[in-house]
Design goal:
It is built from 15 helices and no strands. It is mostly helical.
Length: 429
């Protein structure tokens, strides 16, 4: 990709409406994730087994529905797809307070609700990139992505704390009603948007593909493109390592560092703060260093996660604060740069399929990492287990200067249309 032009100072009103609805929905979802756990633990006496099942229900849709969702989202209008996802998710969330009021709420019902909301999130996220490209100009994509990623990081800071206050004030079950309302606000905002239409490619319009062929086309593009293939593999490896940190960090703070609950919450929030900063500075880093050198520099910066291992009780907790802050800053800034590049590099008719293929690979590593890190923590101790998992993450980051970005200032421009069509039409062998 050539050096980026400075983005227009003001994003279109259509994107501002989209962003507002997405922000409300993200904060509602971040709050509800904690509320469902609180509800299961405090009202329904859920043990570790049920808590694990509840967590798996939220993430498993990426494994089960990721590829089909991408194939569907690439064919359906993105705004309509996202509105339908919001409405279904709102209906599912609203069943929790309804069942609670009638005295029929069960753990199985909570698991079902978590799975439905997670499934809607998969379809919503698959369609989102295509809608963004329809409401902002090409030179504004970096700024738009920056706002979206920064908002997502902010929701991880505010959501859990807000959930605790809501649960204490009106109960966790009634608090979930706020998430249902947030989905409806998102749907209402989307309904107000009039995105620009895209004329379909004539060759693609006459090419009739079956559902399986559409799924295969997305996987094939990722598998055959050296940049997309590398980024997908890197995401899987690094998610495996980072999920180990997420699994063990609370136990590390409480058991190893003897941190009070208030301190534990503040330390964990620092990662979200770093993410907000990274989301806002991502476009600037891309302009300053380049869309290839920037991610390489940020990946090396994210190795600061190893500072967590230096943490000790008392003032030594500051090492963990620094590690989480710098690591999350680098990860989110890198995500802003690479996701913006992908919106221009991948053809519109393949956006959702390529996105969900990469996300499926990345999220598939998370359940396995949770089990592995828990076992390592039991067998070797929490600090040793953290060292192993963070070592896996850092190993992935250190491949960046030697991968396909080696020697480049910027990521490449889109392939020629003929190559794209060939990739899409040819079956994987």
């Amino acid at each position: 990709m050539n050096r980026e032009r400075r983005a227009s100072p003001r994003l279109p009103r259509a994107f501002q409406v989209l962003w507002f609805g997405e922000a409300v929905s993200l904060f509602g979802t971040a709050t509800t994730a904690t509320l469902l756990s609180l509800l299961a633990a405090t009202q329904l006496d859920a043990g570790p087994g049920w808590m694990g099942i509840l967590a798996a229900a939220s993430w498993s849709p990426w494994l089960i529905l990721g590829l089909p969702a991408g194939a569907l989202a690439d064919r359906w209008p993105p705004r309509t797809t996202m509105i339908a996802s919001d409405v279904v998710a709102a209906t599912a969330a609203a069943t929790v307070p309804l069942l609670w009021v009638t005295g029929t709420l069960s753990l199985a019902a909570l698991v079902a609700v978590a799975f439905v909301i997670g499934s809607c999130a998969v379809l919503f996220r698959a369609a989102l990139p295509r809608l963004v490209t329809r409401v902002v100009d090409a030179d504004q994509l970096a700024t738009a992505n920056s706002m979206l990623y920064a908002t997502e990081s902010a929701s991880t800071i505010v959501g859990p704390g807000l959930a605790g206050l809501i649960a204490q004030a009106v109960s966790a079950a009634l608090g979930v009603l706020l998430d249902a309302i947030s989905f409806l606000i998102s749907a209402a905002c989307l309904a107000r948007i009039r995105p620009a239409s895209r004329a379909p490619d004539h060759a693609l319009a006459v090419l009739e593909e079956s559902f399986i062929q559409r799924i295969r086309a997305g996987v094939t593009v990722v598998a055959r493109d050296r940049y997309l293939r590398y980024f997908a593999g890197l995401a899987a490896v690094q998610n495996f390592g980072l999920t180990g940190l997420l699994t063990l960090q609370v136990l590390f703070l409480v058991d190893e560092l003897a941190a009070p609950q208030a301190v534990t919450g503040l330390v964990l929030a620092t990662g979200g703060v770093g993410g907000v900063i990274g989301g806002l500075l991502g476009p600037h880093i891309a302009r300053r260093l380049g869309t290839a050198r920037g991610p390489i520099t940020l990946q090396l910066t994210s190795c600061s996660c190893l500072l967590v291992l230096l943490a000790d009780p008392g003032a030594g907790v500051a090492w963990m604060v620094a590690g989480l802050l710098l690591c999350e800053f680098a990860i989110v800034a890198d995500n802003v740069i690479r996701s913006t590049w992908r919106l221009t590099y991948v053809p519109d008719h393949l956006q959702a399929r390529v996105s969900t293929t990469i996300q499926m690979l990345a999220f598939a590593a998370m359940p396995a990492s949770g089990l592995a890190s828990g076992w390592l923590g039991q067998q070797l101790g929490i600090r040793t287990a953290l060292a192993i998992m963070l070592g896996i993450y850092v190993t992935g980051a250190l491949t960046m200067p030697f991968g396909p970005l080696k020697g480049r200032r910027d990521l490449p421009t889109p392939p020629r249309p003929s190559r794209v069509l060939e990739r899409t039409a040819s079956p994987a062998r």
